[in-house]
Amino acid sequence: MAAKKKATKKRAASKKRVAKKRATKKRATKKKATRKKAKKKATRKKAKKKATRKKAKKKAT
After folding, report:
1. What is the pLDDT of residues 7-39, one digit of tens each?
2. pLDDT tens, 37-54?
3. CA–CA separation, 46 vs 44, rounded Å?
4. pLDDT over 80 (residue 1)
């Protein structure tokens, strides 16, 4: 019986470890996605600014 208990404990521990690993991986991918989104937004904003500047220049001449 004692050996069986030990095995279950070991299994539970390994399961916990795996879950932890998965959680960190998930968090990392989520962070990556948000970073990518932010970058996209920034480039879009920059492009918009450039376009408005170009328009203003055209109007000025």
Report:
1. 888 999 999 999 999 999 999 999 999 999 999
2. 999 999 999 999 999 999
3. 5
4. no
DSSP-assigned letters across all residues of 1-59:
-HHHHHHHHHHHHHHHHHHHHHHHHHHHHHHHHHHHHHHHHHHHHHHHHHHHHHHHHHH
Q: How many domains does the chain have?
A: 1
Tally of CB atoms within 10 A around 50: 10
CA gap 48, 19 in Å, rounded: 43
Instruction: With respect to residue 40, please indicate whether it lies within any of the assigned structural domains.
Output: yes
User: 29 in a domain, yes or no?
Assistant: no
Q: Is residue 21 part of a domain?
A: no
